Amino acid sequence: MPTPTASSDKSTAASRGRNVASKPLNAAAASATSKSKTATPVSATDKTSRTPSESSNASVKSSTSARNGKVGNEAASTSRTPSETGFKVTKLSSSTVTLQTTWSPKPISEPPKTAAASSSGPAPTQPSTNASDPLQLAAQVYPWAYMSSTLDACFDNAETTAKNDLEGRAKELAAEESEAADKRERLEAERSIEFYDELGSDAFATKAPAIMKLFHSHGDACNRIETEALKLAMRDAPDPPEEEPLKVYQDMLSDLEELHTEATSLQESIIELTESTATSTDEASQQAEDVSSARSQVTGVFSACLPVLRARIANLSMAQELIDSALENVSLGLRMESMGLND
């Protein structure tokens, strides 16, 4: 059984706990509470003040827990949570009760925007997300720049290689052309020497020049005699009668016959010369097919004279026929005149 003194001590401690729980017990708790309230300003709408009923209820509950608990830890476990009361019992003794505040200020929420604030000015525009990033541009440009520089380097190398090849080939061609030019000059000189050697041989030294001179002189004589024969054939009877009117026609016929014979002989000489040259050329070609003879060059010149000689022979034959006809006409006229048949 508890003694009366013990019960009186407990009632005294309980009444003292009730008085202490109704207000802050020490100056440290009061100063912490005042600092937390003054550090964070709040609006009138956000402040929440405790009612007297709530504080009295807290004091009653704390006194009840102090009365029923035997130790400080049991009293703390039976008390309300710190978020509801704002205080936490840290020490309980027969003489004093120590409370520690656990209240923390709530964050101040931004006041809602009014219509006036929203209409006062346009909202700040966000930076355009479509703008190209410099790093993105660099990433796009770099492959093209690398490819372009690589291609330029390849082109430069190819151009340099091509130029070097062309220069080397040009030098080779120049050397080959110089050798070919030397060979060409040597070949032309050899042909000229062969030509003059052939001209200095017996066949060309005696026959070819004489035949060529006779050809030119025969041409001049044919032109002159043919002109005279044409004039003689077209001439009328002379006004004073000649003593020998038929002698002119007979002389012309003899000149024409001489030229005709000379032309025939010249033609045979040229044919003989060309045939001998062709034979010697065939023999030379059998010995050396690539070597050209000077006689082949001369053969072409004399062969071109043969058609001219054939034309001269034909013209001389026609002139002879014309003079023969004129001679017959003149002789017939003389006979008729001698017979007195002319008027």
UniProtKB/TrEMBL annotation:
Alphabetical UniProt keywords: Coiled coil
Ranges in coiled-coil conformation: 163-190, 249-276
Span list, region Disordered: 1-134
Taxonomic superkingdom: Eukaryota
Biased composition (Low complexity): 19-45, 53-65, 111-129
Residue ranges with Polar residues bias: 1-14, 75-84, 91-104
The protein's name: Uncharacterized protein
Organismal lineage: Eukaryota, Fungi, Dikarya, Basidiomycota, Agaricomycotina
